Amino acid sequence: YAARIARSTLAAGLGVLILGLSNAFVDYSTSGLENPLTHLLLAVFLTLYLGQPATPRRLFWLSAVASLAGVNRMDTLLIYAPALLVAWWQTPRRWRALRWAVLGQTPFLLWEIFSIIYYGFPFPNTAYAKLNTGVAENELMAQGMFYLLNSLQHDPITLTAILGGITLGFGSRRSRAVALAAGALLYLLYTVRIGGDFMSGRFLTAPLFVAVALIGWRLPPLAARPADAAALIGVALALGLMSPLPTYRIDIPAAYSVSDEKRINDERAWYWGDVNLVGRSRLNPFPTSQGRESGLAARAAGELDYTVLPVNNVGLFGFYAGPNVYAIDQYALADPLLARLPAEREANFYVGHFHRVVPEGYLSTLYSGHNQIEDTRLAEFYDSLRLIVRGGLFDPARWSAIWRMNTGQLDHLIDSERYRYPHMVWVDADAINAAQPSEFGDSGIALRFASALQPESLLVDLDSAGEFTLVYLRDGQEIAETRIDPVYGVEPLATYHVRTPAPALASGFDALRIFPNRGSKDGVYHLAGWRYK
User: Which of 227, 286, 312, 479 is the most buried (most CB within 10 A)?
Assistant: First the structure.
């Protein structure tokens, strides 16, 4: 495929070199995730898109490949959409050709029909678990930017190649190149919007593949310019070898940092010591991770009695726990109820693995088969959800529940505050005592005022060197928020001077929530006092 897309042998070689030096591409092409199939389908699509004239037949196959890519991973359709639009526009008799484009979408459409009939929902459960979190958009976008920064630090060739390919695409006069660049950029922006991932580089391999294709297709023929070829190859080698853990290494240095402060992990380094094939032998044939050991312990308990357990990271645990252990995935990736609850607020949240609070009575509900959830409104929601996921496929009541749930008619039954901030501390503002500071966790602390206040600013005594968000409320409604910067050089508490945002100053506020934005070592924070000017 490289030789068919690139304009010269050296350009093809440069593309292969870039992919071979990219930690993200190499790691996730061998990880067991969906990335390898994503790469294969992109290779087929790009070969058809860049190498054949515009015909209805070609449009059909382009649409079909994109459709299969959507079945494999739905959000990759963002990459294909601009290119499909350009391919359709360039096809003769485009309105007649439109039916070929629609026909090509048959695999994706059939999958969606099956998904709604069988599962009751158009999107995979992981989408609800990862996107229905309650985390503010600005927090997610900031984390998404850190995701790109992490890639630049640990795998510099990947993001550099992506930006280079996108620039070449947009700088081209060919609409096909511009469309591919637009698709790669859309996916990159989408990645930032959702906060990236905890797996370093995972969401960058698809735009990298497109960018490398653009580099090979748009660069001048390198065979005629050996000096240019040598320079580009040298740059690629330098960027690839600048990585703290280049792709040619199969060991992990002891001093290597597997995870950064934003909880973005080098997954190869994370799992290398436990599940790598190199470390397996007759004396050590199995993974050595805690997931295996805790799973085997749960299996032993399950042999005596059926067990329901809340678990993080259900993969190895679930495999070894066996059929008598019902593992509730607290990250909600494999639990339909928890996926529809907001994530518990964490100062340092784990993108892709958002922790949920298990509702009271849910364990006994799954154990007994009878709804014992103590939150009566959530219990009503669960009755409909259980009918959808466990009821008869063509039961009219199930289809009514499918319609109501997918159109948001049951959303009001979920008390978002209860599950987003399960440990929020509510106190009367006058009860705050400097001699005995009030403690709170990631769920925050909320001050109730006797009457609405309209001060120009507040002085708040909190942990020094902390990062906090203040949310102003009036009659239970959020009206404004502001972030406060750390105060250094003072221990253990510092006084933060906070100007009241204009909306809160205009209407007044009768409650104030304080949330930590950066986790402390013990997860405990302190409020010693407040006053206003």
Answer: 479
